[in-house]
Structures are given as C-alpha cells and as structure tokens.
Design goal:
The protein is built from 15 helices and twelve strands. The chain has 365 residues and is an alpha/beta fold. β9, α12 and β10 form a beta-alpha-beta unit. It binds iron/sulfur cluster (SF4).
Length: 365
C-alpha cells in the first residue's frame, strides 16, 4: 500500500463530502487557499466537483514563481549579461516572461544561466567555478528561504566569495494581512499554507482569525486533508467561530520549526517586497543581512528600465482571487504551458497551469 493511499481513499472522501454538504447547507462559502500545492491538488483530484456548488475555491498568492515580479526577472537578466557572471536559478523561474525576454531566452541569446534544484547545489557549482560570480536567484516563501539561509551560512563559513544571492524571498503573514485587509477582499475562510506553517508554525497567522475575523485551517496536501479542512472551516462558519485550527498535525506545530526560524533570522532581515498582483508590501520580504553584504547581489543589476507586464495578462487579478484563470482572455489561446504569456501559466503550482492541465480531471473522478 502506497503511503499516500490512506489520504486518497475515495470510500472516505464521499461521506466526508456529504458531511460538508450537510454542515454548510445552502450557505455560500468562498475559501481561499494560498499555497500552490493546494491549488494543484484541488484541480488534480477534482475536489470542487465533490463539493456543493455553493462552496467555491479562490486561489491566492501561493505560488512562489507566480508572485515573483517582472522587475526581478529584468534585474536577473541584466546580471546574467555581465562578464564572468552566471545566474543560478530554479527551473521554473527561467520560463517566466520578463519585460522583453525570459531568462531562458536570455540564455539562448548567450547569457550564462544555469538551473539548480537547490541553493546548496548552486553553492557547490560556485566552489568549482572560482573564476565566475554565481548569483543565485532566491525566490520562494519561508519553506524555501530556510534552505537558502543554510546555503548562505555555509558560503559564509567557507568564505565562498564568488557566491551571491539576489533575493525576492517572501513571507506569507504580511502579504495575507495586506490582501485580506483590503475592503475588496471577498473571502469567507482561509486554507493556510501547510509547508510554510511547518516552518513558522500557525501562530503568526492568529491575527487573521482574531483581527480580521476570518476562520483559518492549516491543511495538508492530499485530497482527504483538503476535504477535512473544508469541513473544519464549514463548522467554524456555522458556529460563528474564528480560529486558527491545524488539520495538518503530522507536519505542523503552532510554534513551527525553531531551528529553521533561527537560521533565517541569522542570515536574513525583513525588507519591503514587491508581489505580482499585490504591489509593494512593507516588511513582507527577506533580504541578506547587512553584515553579509559581500554575499548580496542586490547592487549588481544597476538601474533597469521600468518593467512592463505582458499585454492582456491578468495574473495580478488571478493572484488576488479576483478572477478565475479561465476569465483571462488569453487563457488556452495565446497563453499555454508551452508558450506562457504570464507567470501563473509557468509552474505546475500556478493557478492557470493547474486549470489548464487538470480541467478535464473532473470528468475522470
Ligand atoms: Fe496570465 Fe496566462 Fe493566466 Fe492570462 S492565462 S492570467 S496571461 S498566466
């Protein structure tokens, strides 16, 4: 038996969905998820089809590639064009369109861009290429940031001076505060990001329940995890409770992973950060601490021209949960996973890519 089977058991899913139907009744419920893993699972397992039509999923800013701004891609390309410099990137990021080119197109035009699975791999590559400056494109949320912090700490310990970090790392609580405090936000309940919470815990999200009065559940990523989380949220709403509950107890504690938090704090400090669709949010990003500025690539890009979004692309609206991917006029026409016009069509965790890939799955389950 596969370890995941117990979380994908259709014989359990059906009564669970029935239980949600009976708890929620006819009440309309808009549930936002803010993790690309949840978005992909919702479509892959056709969970919307199992629920009453009155319960609707909204996809928030939870895909790290999607929320990385066009300006960051432009700066990375400017750095990659410099002599004896290599830009080191996660794979998906190189396909995100910049103002004029993607990193993949810049590489085809002669710039040095290498793909790595981790910051630690990029660090080792830098050690073996001492004649080049290696700039690692640090994107992602707390889940990834702690691993990048570990690589930076190692670079400092070994004094690898040709390894640098260009940071667009983001922290989730500040972004959710900005998004959900907006009077246009129309969210009844929130599925909190399980991976992020495994690092920082559920406590940093308490303000959503207590100040903003929105019920929250930290969810795992299997179909039964998500259905159980929807059931817990429905109960909170019906009982007029606003709490942060943890469904994903096998991975998440309220206080999170203290060692991971410590290494992030040791290497990084809060900075203002630009999010695609949300703009600049104070202290919602992580930058390299001033004492490690020798490893910070922020100054290498110089001044780049103001960035431009792809014409017609509505990724910002998708990331705010204002529209569904199918409502973008480019969806499935000018914009496909093979030829993405916007960031949300690049990664499998992007809402547009998930809808594109799994829209037919509803009929197969
Ligand atoms: Fe952007 Fe493409 Fe999604 Fe439209 S379909 S919002 S262009 S990623």
């Amino acid at each position: 038996m596969n370890v995941f089977d117990q979380w994908r058991n259709a014989a359990v899913a059906k009564p669970l969905a029935e239980s949600i139907r009976s708890i929620a009744g006819e009440r309309p419920i808009r549930i936002m998820e803010v993790c690309g893993g949840h978005t992909a699972a919702i479509y892959r397992f056709a969970l919307q089809r199992m629920l009453p039509g009155t319960i609707q999923f909204l996809h928030g800013p939870g895909c790290p590639v999607c929320v990385t701004g066009t300006d960051f891609i432009d700066r990375a390309i400017a750095i990659a064009r410099a002599e004896k410099t290599t830009v080191a990137s996660f794979g998906d990021l190189i396909r995100v369109p910049g103002s004029t080119l993607s990193l993949a197109e810049a590489r085809a035009a002669g710039s040095s861009v290498e793909v790595f699975y981790s910051a630690m791999d990029a660090l080792e590559w830098a050690v073996h290429h001492p004649d080049r400056t290696v700039v690692f494109l640090a994107i992602g949320f707390e889940t990834t940031a702690c691993t990048i912090a570990a690589a930076l700490s190692e670079a400092v310990r070994r004094q690898v001076k040709n390894f640098r970090i260009l940071s667009a790392m983001k922290t989730m609580p500040g972004a959710l505060h900005a998004l959900l405090s907006d009077s246009r936000a129309n969210v009844d309940a929130l599925i909190l990001p399980g991976h992020v919470c495994s690092v920082i815990g559920s406590q940093p999200f308490e303000f959503i329940a207590h100040e903003l009065r929105i019920p929250c559940v930290v969810s795992g990523f299997e179909p039964l995890d998500i259905l159980e989380s929807v059931r817990m949220l429905s109960c909170q709403l019906v009982e007029h409770r606003c709490e942060v509950e943890i469904q994903y107890r096998r991975a998440v504690k309220p206080s999170g992973n203290v060692a991971a938090q410590q290494i992030m704090e040791q290497m990084f400090e809060p900075v203002d950060m630009t999010w695609r669709g949300l703009g600049s949010i104070p202290a919602s990003g992580l930058g390299v601490r001033r004492e490690y500025s020798a490893w910070d690539a922020a100054s290498l890009a110089g001044k780049t021209a103001p960035s431009k979004e792809p014409p017609g692309c509505r990724c910002g609206d998708v990331l705010r949960g204002s529209i569904r991917p199918e409502e973008c006029s480019l969806f499935r026409k000018a914009c496909t996973p093979d030829r993405p016009r916007g960031a949300c069509m690049v990664s499998s965790e992007g809402a547009c890519a998930a809808v594109y890939q799994f829209a037919g799955a509803e009929d197969e389950h």
